[in-house]
Amino acid sequence: MTAHPQCPLCTDDGGELVWRGKSARVVLADEPQFPGFTRVIWAAHRAEMTDLVPAERAGLMALVWCVEQVQRDLLCPDKINLASLGNVVPHLHWHVIPRWRDDSHFPAPVWAGAERDGAARLTKSSPLLAVYRDALAARLDALVAG
Fold first, then answer.
1. What's the order of all strands across the beta sheet hosting 16-20?
2. pLDDT digits (tens, 9 = 90+) for 6-64
3. Strand partners, 98
4. At 143, phi and psi to the nearest 5?
5. Which H or E run contains 82?
6. How far apart are CA 118 and CA 123, in angstroms?
7. What angle, rounded to 10 degrees, do the helices at 127-145 and 54-70 form?
8. For the whole prediction, is pTM greater than 0.85?
9. Scanning 21, 49, 81, 110, which has its CA 20 to 30 A from the CA of 61?
10. Domains of the chain in sequence order
């Protein structure tokens, strides 16, 4: 794995580790206002999707889609936002963010200013979030096992 010593996603998991595979890991982001906010992070230091060969791209997106499906199945959000920005941390990673119409920023992106006080759907200690973590790890294991 290629690492960059100044990259926070090379030197740290980037959140609460849910699953680690050979080429990527999945973490829960520390975003209390947005429970279930999940990142899929490529293991090696790469900046763009086109830095990966086609099979790697397909594998990474399969992980992203798996996270999205588990969020839909268990968290039942009104919408899911997918984003791969990397402007601040140029290490390839995808944000998979469950959104609800009554969250503090909806319909704006989570990085915009708050529109209102948001409804408290889940907390870090919520039993549903624990079920989500466990189910997500199991589904990712099954996906990779093929």
1. 16-20, 24-28, 38-42, 93-99, 79-83
2. 899 999 999 999 999 999 999 999 998 899 999 999 999 999 999 999 999 999 999 99
3. 80
4. -60, -45
5. strand 79-83
6. 13
7. 150
8. yes
9. 110
10. 8-145 (3.30.428.10)
pLDDT tens across 64-75, in order? 999 999 999 999
Given a cut of 90, whether residue 88 has pLDDT beyond it is: no
Query: How high is the pLDDT of residue 65?
Result: 98
Q: Which residues face 93 on adjacent strands?
A: 41
* CA-atom Rg of the chain in angstroms: 15
The answer to whether 84 and 91 have CB atoms below 8 angstroms apart is no
Whether a cis peptide bond, with omega within 30° of 0, leads into 127 is no
Judge whether 77 and 6 are in contact, CB under 8 Å: no
AA identity, residue 117 = D
Structural contact between residues 8 and 15, judged by C-beta atoms closer than 8 angstroms = no
Identify the burial level of 6 via C-beta atoms within 10 angstroms of its C-beta, where 0-12 means exposed, 13-18 middle and 19 or more buried.
exposed
Q: Which residue has the tokens 């996270």?
A: 67
Contact 28, 131 (CB under 8 A): no
Where do we find the tokens 């791209």? 57
